[in-house]
Amino acid sequence: MARAWAQAALALVWLTRLPLGRFLPAAPPHLAQAAWAFPLAGLVVG
After folding, report:
1. What pLDDT digit, counting tens, does each position of 7-30 carry?
2. How many whole angstroms separate alpha carbon 2 and alpha carbon 46?
3. Residue 9, domain extent
4. Strand segments (E) across 1-46
5. Least-confidence region, from 4-8, 25-29, 31-35, 37-41
6. pTM recorded for the entire structure
7. DSSP labels for 1-46?
8. Quick check: keyword Transferase in the entry (predicted)?
9. What is the end-to-end Cα distance of the chain in Å, rounded?
């Protein structure tokens, strides 16, 4: 579950200017692993 939150935070950091970098682990997941969360980031922002 923590991995999913890290991936969602990475998607928000990548697609927005929200300062959520402090919620990412020391070794953040690869962007390809967080691609599933891109639509969720759109829902949050849009």
Report:
1. 998 999 999 988 877 878 888 789
2. 24
3. 2-45
4. none
5. 25-29
6. 0.81
7. -HHHHHHHHHHHHHHS----GGGS-SSPPPGGGGGGGHHHHHHHH-
8. yes
9. 25
